[in-house]
Each structure stands twice: as C-alpha cells, then as structure tokens.
Amino acid sequence: GAGVSQTPSNKVTEKGKYVELRCDPISGHTALYWYRQSLGQGPEFLIYFQGTGAADDSGLPNDRFFAVRPEGSVSTLKIQRTERGDSAVYLCASSPGGSGANVLTFGAGSRLTVL
Amino acid sequence: DQQVKQNSPSLSVQEGRISILNCDYTNSMFDYFLWYKKYPAEGPTFLISISSIKDKNEDGRFTVFLNKSAKHLSLHIVPSQPGDSAVYFCAAGGLTGGGNKLTFGTGTQLKVEL
C-alpha cells in the first residue's frame, strides 16, 4: 500500500478483555515496529520484526503482550486481560530494512481505551 | 531512565521568525538522529535526520545541528510558518545492534503564531 495502515483506528474495551490490533506495512518493507504512545509521552518501543521473526521484543511490558507477523507482511499486536494502564495509542511503523540507518514510516495509530 | 530528553514541552514563535527545538541524549552508542513532526490524530512524520559523522544537515527551511561532545542536537526552522505548528519528536538510534530501533524524546509542542 501507499502507507502504513492500522486498524482499528479506535478501540474501546473493558478491563480483562482480549484485544487485537492490526498493522499493514508499506509493500516491500521487511522491517516492522510496534510502539506505544501514552498521553504527554513520546513513542515507546515495544517490538521489532525483521521478516517473520521478532528481532527484538525487549520493549513488551509483560507476557500479556504478544505480536506476530506470520508471513512477513501484516502484523497483529495481541493484548490479553487488558488493564486500564494499557490505554494508549499503539503505533506501527515499517522501514525497508537492511543495513544502515533507515527511516521509519508510521501509521496513524490505533487508540486503545480500556474502561 | 530517559535516554533522549526534550526539556521544553512547548514553544511559541511568531510567523517568519526562527524556531529552535532542542534535544539531549545520554547514550553514547546512538549514532544517528532524526526529527519527526506529529499532527493530532496522525502518526509521526519523518522530517530530517543526521548521522553522527556530521554536525549539520540542511533541507529547505529545516536544519539539524549535532554537537556530539555535548550530546545535544537542535532543529532550526526558518522562517517559521503557521503550518509548522505541531509536536516535534527527537529520536535516536544505534546502527550497532538493535536493528533500527529508535528511542524517542517526549516531544515539544511548537505553536507558530500569526
């Protein structure tokens, strides 16, 4: 696609529920990132995929958070047993990958509200 | 532990004047730096970057300066325009390890007034 697409744009759920957020990266981009942005903060790194594998998941806050990218394109961020503190904008980004400094292109984000 | 810091949460500038946004970092392993601009309800948009081997990079009205010894970078916008009003994030990355993972600052809200 022309840009990074994220769905849903808004998600309201109740505490304890399961949530999935989807990211469709720029076609041909091998690297995909998930970030989380809370109010008044900058984007905070969660996980990075190179192809199908998670190259770095050091930013996932706990084992309720999981992400997959089974075919090396679309990725899904999964949050189990949601808590009010999970409320934030979840940003996905992609880049061409490879060596050197790449510029990350971000989607518009999925705003998650946990009541 | 905030590795990238933007100490000014907001900045107000008159149209046509220079805007200077500042950023400090603590991790010596960072070797490239980027500025992103963010409008409400949109994702951050890349603006300009600089590698640690340079001390200045210019693109139109936007110039980024890097002072490695002080671990400080700044973004200059001249002349400032009302459309520049947005939140500006400084980000840093390391080419050695960690892929292209970026660490972001907390952002500076720039308001350009008529």
Secondary-structure element sequence of chain B?
EEEEEEEEEEE
| Number of separate helices of chain A | 0
Give the uncertain stretches of chain B in residue-range form: none
Instruction: Say what oligomer this is.
Output: heterodimer
CATH A-level architecture of chain A: Sandwich
**Biggest chain pair contact, residues each?**
A-B, 29 and 27 residues
Any idea how many domains of chain A?
1
| Average predicted local confidence, pLDDT of chain A | 94
CATH architecture of chain B: Sandwich
Largest sheet of chain B: 6 strands, mixed
Total number of beta strands of chain A: 11
Domain tally of chain B: 1
Share of helix among residues of chain A? Answer: under 10%
Distance between the termini of chain A: 33 Å
Structural class of chain A: mainly beta
CATH class of chain B: Mainly Beta
| Beta strand count of chain B | 11
- CATH names the topology of chain A as Immunoglobulin-like
Alpha plus pi helix count of chain B: 0
